[in-house]
Design brief:
Blueprint (H helix, E strand, L loop, with lengths): L15 E6 L2 E7 L15 E3 L8 H17 L2 E5 L5 H15 L3 H4 L12 E3 L21 E6 L14 H5 L12 H28 L14 E10 L12 E4 L5 E6 L5 E4 L5 E3 L7 E5 L1 H6 L9 E3 L8 E11 L3 E2 L17 E2 H25 L9
Parallel strand pairs: 3-4
Antiparallel strand pairs: 1-2, 4-12, 5-6, 6-7, 7-14, 8-13, 9-12, 9-14, 10-11, 10-13, 15-16
Helix pairs in contact: 1-5, 2-5
The structure holds 2-oxoglutaric acid and fe (ii) ion.
């Protein structure tokens, strides 16, 4: 008599977390547990920025090394003692709240689709980073509004001497000057302090990547420096599709984010687990973007993040500042981040070319969105 053993296979299907990167859907990371799991982070460190303001190079180097360690592993940090006056931050929130409370028809006077650089008001549900858009689950997922503006020479505390050609590379911001002039003043005051902080951080990143402090100075005279101030509306308990912002990486050099006390930001570790980045008073969240990952040949990691579905009936406000580089900057992989054993994994970055390429990838979606809005299919007049 023979007996047959039937092997019981537990062929579990791999699970993935998907994210949006480089103007496209479809990037993914496998969820790993048990023996397969990597040693990876489970929290986000807080870095004290006070030594960055020291006159002594060794103090600045010490904080730069700390930041480099965090950016090589987590790609996200909180900074405290960052030097930006709380009153300036509070005023940015005050005007943000007051702006979003305006009637939608008023906000639509500065609709971002009227502006070549998409500066201005981003209507509710306009953002589309959630992977589910690809699958056509719903048109109305990311329940947030935004207001986007970028570099303005007049508000730069260290104004550069730009040629007309360099000036022409910038998009012109639009503002609700007639209906709410304090909005521009509050937001641009905040922007100018954050730009200054951003330049200081770039010098620390340079030190942490073992080049001299001034390495990036001539690439950030008039950088792409964009704020998109946000209001996430309370989510409908009967509509599970509604969400904050889909998983993505930021494409610029780095981001400095102020968030209110509501929470919801999460970041993805190497095992594709979502790690919360809860609000911590007196801090900004700073994260590596794709350009810094490229310039550092992958040494600094551009970490995937999202804002999860909000619970509760309070809106959430956040103010990210996306720090880029000059439009005419050309940034090769840093000499200290490459060697014969570690050749460049990335082509040199040409900022203008990158932005043109990104817009091309987005063109079809932008055109579809514009047509939908014009046809009233996705009403930009929805409000909570
Ligand atoms: O609102 C937040 O906390 C994050 C927003 C964000 O990731 C983005 O706008 O790129
Ligand atoms: Fe982001």
């Amino acid at each position: 008599m023979s007996s047959t053993t039937v092997a019981i296979t537990s062929a579990t299907q791999p699970q993935y977390e998907y994210f949006y990167q480089d103007g496209r859907f479809g990037a993914k990371r496998e969820v790993l547990t048990g023996d397969k799991a990597f040693k990876t982070f489970t929290e986000i460190p807080i870095v004290d920025l006070a030594p960055a303001y020291s006159d002594k190079l060794e103090d600045r180097e010490q904080v730069a090394r700390k930041i480099a360690e965090v950016f090589e592993t987590v790609g996200f940090m909180y900074i405290k003692n960052h030097g930006v006056d709380q009153a300036i931050i509070d005023e940015a929130y005050r005007v943000t709240k007051e702006y979003f409370d305006l009637p939608t028809e008023k906000k639509m006077q500065n609709f971002n689709y009227k502006n070549d650089g998409l500066r201005g008001y981003e209507a509710l549900y306009s953002a589309r980073l959630d992977e589910r858009f690809k699958k056509g689950v719903s048109d109305n997922i990311e329940k947030k509004e935004g207001y986007t503006f970028s570099y303005d020479e007049e508000w730069d505390m260290v104004p550069p001497n730009l040629t007309e050609a360099q000036r022409a590379l910038h998009y012109i911001n639009q503002w609700p000057d007639e209906i709410f002039p304090e909005f521009k003043t509050g937001m641009m005051t905040y922007w100018s302090h954050m730009l200054t902080l951003g330049r200081r951080l770039m010098r620390l990143f340079a030190l942490g990547l073992d080049v001299n402090e001034e390495y990036f100075d001539n690439m950030m005279r008039a950088p792409l420096a964009t704020i998109r101030t946000h209001r996430y509306s309370p989510m409908d308990p009967n509509n599970e599709d509604e969400n904050g912002i889909g998983a993505h990486t930021d494409f610029e050099t780095f981001t400095m984010l102020s968030q209110d006390s509501i929470g919801g930001l999460e970041i993805l570790n190497l095992n594709a687990q979502w790690i919360p980045a809860p609000p911590i008073e007196g801090t900004f969240v700073v994260n590596v973007g794709d350009w810094l990952q490229q310039a550092s040949n992958g040494r600094f990691v551009s970490t995937v993040h999202r804002v999860k579905r909000l619970t509760g009936n309070q809106p959430r406000y956040s103010i990210p500042f996306f720090f880029g580089l000059d439009f005419d900057a050309y940034c090769d992989v840093l000499p200290t981040c490459q060697s014969p054993e570690n050749p460049p994994k990335y082509k040199p970055l040409n900022i203008k070319e990158y932005l043109v390429g990104l817009r091309k990838k987005q063109e079809a979606r932008l055109a579809k969105r514009k047509a939908e809005v014009e046809a009233g299919i996705v009403s930009p007049f929805d409000s909570y």
